[in-house]
Amino acid sequence: MSSKLGDIAVSVSSLSKEYYFFKNNFWRLLWVFADIARYTHKFSALNDVNFSIHKGESFGIIGQNGSGKSTLLKIIAGTSTPTSGKVETCGRIAALLELGLGFHQDLTGIENIKLNGLFSGLTEREITEKIKFIEDFSELGEFFYRPVKMYSTGMFMRLAFSMAIAVEPEILIVDEALSVGDQRFQKKCIDYITNLLEKGITLLFCSHDQYTVERLCNRVLWLDKGHVKMLGNSRKVVAAYQESLKEKAKTQAQSFENPPIIIEDIELYSNGVRIDASKPLEPFSELEIKIKYHSLDKNELNCHFGLGIYSSDETEMFATSTAIENIEVKKVGPGEKGSVQIFFPKILLLDGEYTVTGIIQDDTALHVYHRLIKNSAFRVLMPRFEARGAFFMEHKWRLN
Predict the structure, then answer these.
(1) How many CB atoms sit inside 10 A of residue 123's CB?
(2) N or C, fewer C-beta in 10 Å, the chain?
(3) Is 281 within 8 Å of 379 (Cβ atoms)?
(4) pLDDT tens digits, 172-191
(5) Is residue 212 helix, strand or coil?
(6) 3 state DSSP class of 117
(7) Cα–Cα distance, 222 to 83 (Å, whole number)
């Protein structure tokens, strides 16, 4: 911690982190005691990372798995050390890193609170004063007094988040912890974080939920294979990141090797009647799109579903997913066949032929299990000329 940072809460300078892999423990000992590293493989998790975060700022970190996000947050939190470079912080830190980290499995929730409170530098009186708040906020009920080895990941998140905010941190670090648990409690946590931001707390927020990152954070750091890819306004950085993911997806083959679940078909209906491009729709018609799936796995799968609508020139007209909209994953049983539907009460697309793409993702919404592209899925035909362009927009003329 530094007291010379002024308005800066976190300063990261020329930060690098390297991990070494050894053929066996003999070579590991040689490296430790004799600095012989010729026979090791070196992995660079972070490479010359530089940025600073002002006090009271909400700062997001995005990037694909393996980009160095968690490594960076661990170093800032003080649970890991850098290979080179420097991190300075100003203010009391509370961090939600790996769920279950710092919990003793045989102790109860309340016992873990007391133990972690002492490690955090709180007095016994301060811990006692905060226990009621933690118990109420976590909503664990009788599990609050049971060993945490009985907890689900969602329960761990409830207890860990409640403990983190109870210590009244000046810097709060959240690394993917809010991606588990039920949606109502996730919303409760986000609302509380928003309230803390209004009070001037500094937030470091890492998540694959780009919508929440954009909503919560003023600035965003995009990490790519340990390097700073982009740093700036949250909307601009998130948009650039999404575009890169889209470009990467275009290069992926449409065939998937041994997928655990597949999309068998995409069906379209309007007013209960199945349609295709040979039966054009008028603008403002209702449209229902049904994604039919078939699980090929022997285990239950937690799946997110996504949908994209594209024009004939491959312009993305609309895209969404259950992950983007924070809808709970769908549990698909072994060998199960079924469907999910998305309903549009009124389509505002104008003249054109449109392609529909359906995807099935895992519960992190990062891995695509399967994708199906239905070319020329439907056509919109305007019976009389009313407007040009891609969408119809409600409007009124005033000529006086």
Answers:
(1) 10
(2) C
(3) yes
(4) 998 877 766 677 888 888 88
(5) helix
(6) helix
(7) 21
Buried b / exposed e along 26-38 (16+ C-beta atoms within 10 A): ebeebbeeeeeee
Question: How many of the other CB atoms lie within 10 Å of CB of 360?
Answer: 28
Pair 243, 316: CB distance under 8 Å: no
CA distance 117 to 130: 9
pTM metric for this prediction: 0.61
Q: Of 257, 255, 215, 252, nearest to 235 (Cα)?
A: 215
Tell me the C-alpha to C-alpha distance, in Å, between residue 10 and each of 3, 13, 45, 396. Answer: 11, 10, 20, 51
Q: Per mean pLDDT, which of 152-166, 221-235, 240-254, 363-377 is the most reliable?
A: 221-235
What is the per-residue DSSP string for 366-392? -SEEEEEEEEEEEEE--SS----SSB-
Which neighbouring-strand residues pair with 303? 330
What single-letter DSSP state applies at residue 256?
-
Q: Is 56 left (phi over 0), alpha (psi -120 to 50) or beta?
A: left
Give 227's strand partners: 224
68-81: b or e for each residue (b if 16 or more CB lie within 10 Å)? bbbbbbbbbbeeee
d(C-alpha 230, C-alpha 146), whole Å: 45
Cα dihedral sign, 173-177-178-182? negative
Distance CA 79, CA 59 (A): 20
pLDDT for residue 98: 66
Architecture of 261-380 per CATH? Answer: Distorted Sandwich (2.70)
